[in-house]
Amino acid sequence: MTHLDVRDLACSYGSEKILKGVTLSAEKGEVVSLIGPSGSGKSTLLRALVGLTLPSAGEVRVAGKAVDYSSRKSVRELRSQLAIVFQQYNLFQNMTVMRNVTIAPITIKKRPKAEVEALAAELLARVGMEAKHDAYPEELSGGQQQRVAIARALALQPEILLLDEVTSALDPERVNEVLDTIRRLTDEGITMLLVSHEMSFVREVSTRVVMMDDGKVVETGTPSQIFDSPTHERTRDFVGMILKH
Amino acid sequence: MNYTFQFGEVMAELPYLLGGALVTLQIVFFTFFLGAVLGLMGALGKVYGPTPLRKAISAYVIFITNTPALVQIFVLYYALPDAGILLSSMAAVLIGLTLNSTAYLTEIIRAGVVSVRQAEMDAAIGLNMTRLQILRYVMLPHIAKTIFAPLSNFFIWLMLGSSIAALFGVEELTGRAINVSSVNLRTIETFSVVAVIYIGLTLIASMSLALLGRVAFRVKARVF
Ligand SMILES: Nc1ncnc2c1ncn2[C@@H]1O[C@H](COP(=O)(O)OP(=O)(O)O)[C@@H](O)[C@H]1O
Ligand SMILES: [Mg+2]
């Protein structure tokens, strides 16, 4: 069964239509990458999927079950299966690294503290942050904060992970450490929706690539279809411009 | 001028005066914490509430902060009995100061609420926290940290301001000072001692608050 199924999703800020009917899907364990020019609605799509921005039309199904964004219960159930990592990491500044990672499982999932801390320690080690349990976000570099944010999302043990340009706010020398972290995750069968401008990385890890422009999906295909033989003018231009860069 | 200071009679009343300081502290703790809880609700209502609620809260804050606390308590104590509501002097003072704390703390806390980063709110929602959990774990620590200085100042202001209770016959520190001096007629000595006790109270409060800020909220507050 399709793990994440998005049909004709529309979204507006005020009177301005941002998403104009987006359709895409991901099978279990797939890594679907969203590419497209800045302002095309990629972040809005991810925010709408978790209900941070309310969709105005369309349908979202997770493992076959339709999400009702007007129902708090339905949205809470959705969020228990989904985790999002933001471009600007959005760590809680008043909490240590360890607390950032453990707060949700302890307070929301009511899991035993010791068990959660053991899991968190394992996750932090996996993202190379085992030495920073007691540090506060302000004491960390952007790359380190982003890796903590990924560990925080993983501590929820989500079935679907949404990653929004997780490397774009980082110094070039920090990009690889975060990409390595994601690369390892793709081997674990977690379904991923990934927004990224790192084209070689997208090509390497994606099972499918979705090209977006102006709130719509322009083209969907395998990485080689999108990068080597795009059928749409817009995709060709965008990919050509980014690869030249 | 050949006035000789005599502190002996005042010092004999020191335990009585310190008892008054304890009453002052009770009044301040009660009105501060009740005001803080109501002020938090006011601040949240003012930032996130529907327009009628926001307007109502603004009107309340403007009304209270633009009239003297003394006049408000006066109304509670002397005018309400005409409407059939009889309050003890202590009750009138507690209610009056709480109404005041609520108004001032609504404004102070509101500044903290609007300074909570939207990014952290988004993250908390994404992590599936409930509204109450977001308030408890994300907003409150941030609010407390940002508004710590004005909050401490208000606490001190309230402690000193609570002396108006004496005008209604409440036997807190100032009230007991009036009692003592009207018996021993050593007004200067009595009020000098009382001033020192007030300074002691504010110093202890400032230092406790600075310590609390440092331990609980990582605020680097200085007392001097
Ligand atoms: N909070 C907001 N209010 C109004 N407009 C917004 C808001 N966030 C994003 N937008 C607009 O929505 C469009 C899509 O933005 P976004 O989803 O961030 O694109 P992308 O992530 O693809 O760069 C842009 O035109 C942007 O200006
Ligand atoms: Mg974006």
UniProtKB/TrEMBL annotation, chain A:
<dbReference type="GO" id="GO:0005886">
    <property type="term" value="C:plasma membrane"/>
</dbReference>
<dbReference type="InterPro" id="IPR050086">
    <property type="entry name" value="MetN_ABC_transporter-like"/>
</dbReference>
<dbReference type="Pfam" id="PF00005">
    <property type="entry name" value="ABC_tran"/>
</dbReference>
<keyword id="KW-0813">Transport</keyword>
<keyword id="KW-0029">Amino-acid transport</keyword>
<dbReference type="InterPro" id="IPR003593">
    <property type="entry name" value="AAA+_ATPase"/>
</dbReference>
<keyword id="KW-1003">Cell membrane</keyword>
<protein>
    <submittedName>
        <fullName>Amino acid ABC transporter ATP-binding protein (PAAT family)</fullName>
    </submittedName>
</protein>
<dbReference type="GO" id="GO:0016887">
    <property type="term" value="F:ATP hydrolysis activity"/>
</dbReference>
<dbReference type="InterPro" id="IPR003439">
    <property type="entry name" value="ABC_transporter-like_ATP-bd"/>
</dbReference>
<keyword id="KW-0472">Membrane</keyword>
<keyword id="KW-0067">ATP-binding</keyword>
<feature type="domain" description="ABC transporter">
    <location>
        <begin position="4"/>
        <end position="239"/>
    </location>
</feature>
<comment type="similarity">
    <text>Belongs to the ABC transporter superfamily.</text>
</comment>
<dbReference type="InterPro" id="IPR027417">
    <property type="entry name" value="P-loop_NTPase"/>
</dbReference>
<keyword id="KW-0547">Nucleotide-binding</keyword>
<dbReference type="GO" id="GO:0005524">
    <property type="term" value="F:ATP binding"/>
</dbReference>
<dbReference type="InterPro" id="IPR030679">
    <property type="entry name" value="ABC_ATPase_HisP-typ"/>
</dbReference>
<dbReference type="GO" id="GO:0015424">
    <property type="term" value="F:ABC-type amino acid transporter activity"/>
</dbReference>
<dbReference type="InterPro" id="IPR017871">
    <property type="entry name" value="ABC_transporter-like_CS"/>
</dbReference>
TrEMBL record, chain B:
<keyword id="KW-1003">Cell membrane</keyword>
<feature type="transmembrane region" description="Helical">
    <location>
        <begin position="147"/>
        <end position="170"/>
    </location>
</feature>
<protein>
    <submittedName>
        <fullName>Amino acid ABC transporter membrane protein 1 (PAAT family)</fullName>
    </submittedName>
</protein>
<feature type="transmembrane region" description="Helical">
    <location>
        <begin position="85"/>
        <end position="105"/>
    </location>
</feature>
<dbReference type="GO" id="GO:0043190">
    <property type="term" value="C:ATP-binding cassette (ABC) transporter complex"/>
</dbReference>
<keyword id="KW-0813">Transport</keyword>
<keyword id="KW-1133">Transmembrane helix</keyword>
<feature type="transmembrane region" description="Helical">
    <location>
        <begin position="190"/>
        <end position="212"/>
    </location>
</feature>
<dbReference type="Pfam" id="PF00528">
    <property type="entry name" value="BPD_transp_1"/>
</dbReference>
<dbReference type="InterPro" id="IPR000515">
    <property type="entry name" value="MetI-like"/>
</dbReference>
<dbReference type="InterPro" id="IPR010065">
    <property type="entry name" value="AA_ABC_transptr_permease_3TM"/>
</dbReference>
<dbReference type="InterPro" id="IPR035906">
    <property type="entry name" value="MetI-like_sf"/>
</dbReference>
<keyword id="KW-0812">Transmembrane</keyword>
<dbReference type="GO" id="GO:0015184">
    <property type="term" value="F:L-cystine transmembrane transporter activity"/>
</dbReference>
<feature type="transmembrane region" description="Helical">
    <location>
        <begin position="57"/>
        <end position="79"/>
    </location>
</feature>
<keyword id="KW-0029">Amino-acid transport</keyword>
<comment type="similarity">
    <text>Belongs to the binding-protein-dependent transport system permease family. HisMQ subfamily.</text>
</comment>
<dbReference type="InterPro" id="IPR043429">
    <property type="entry name" value="ArtM/GltK/GlnP/TcyL/YhdX-like"/>
</dbReference>
<feature type="domain" description="ABC transmembrane type-1">
    <location>
        <begin position="21"/>
        <end position="209"/>
    </location>
</feature>
<keyword id="KW-0472">Membrane</keyword>
<feature type="transmembrane region" description="Helical">
    <location>
        <begin position="20"/>
        <end position="45"/>
    </location>
</feature>
